[in-house]
Amino acid sequence: MVNINNKRRLPANEVYKVMTNTESPQDRRRHKRYRAKDGALISPIARYRKYWKMLDVSMRGASFRYIPCEDLKDFNEIDIAMQDLGFTLEGIPFKVISDCDFTDDCASFSRLRRCGVEFGPLTHSQESLLDEFIRKYTVALS
Question: Which of 11, 57, 69, 115 is the most exposed place for a label (fewest CB within 10 A)?
């Protein structure tokens, strides 16, 4: 028997099941996520704008892929926009929740990263615009 986290002893075959379990952990998000349509972009508010491809969004956060060139922790607000500028939502407070290598067989850049952000408190206007963005420019994840 093997002791895991000093909580309870499991037989070796049960430990193997725990260590090789490939099921994804239960999603703890409280808000439904939506896949962003092509042309949806995120830009940290900075002197020089860089626009990155949005991957998904919810009423509490978003994820995007980017080429690392600056420390994202130096930013505290982002804008969301459509490439054709048919929609813009500016000055969304955020904090970085995750930042890891982006793995995609179609990616032409080897150094792409995926960043997940949590939105800070939004104004009523920002919430309304984010809701509009989700309705018009996303599709539900399956």
Answer: 69
Give the pair of three-digit tokens for residue 71: 């420390």
Give residues with Cβ within 8 angstroms of 25, minimum separation 6. none
Which residues in the chain show pLDDT less than 70? 1-31, 104-110, 142
- Cα-based angle 25, 65, 43 (whole degrees, multiple of 5): 125
Asked whether residue 4 is assigned to any structural domain, the reply reads: no
3-state SS class at 132: helix
Q: Is residue 78 part of a domain?
A: yes
Q: How far apart are CA 51 and CA 80, in angstroms?
A: 9
CATH code assigned at 60 = 2.40.10.220
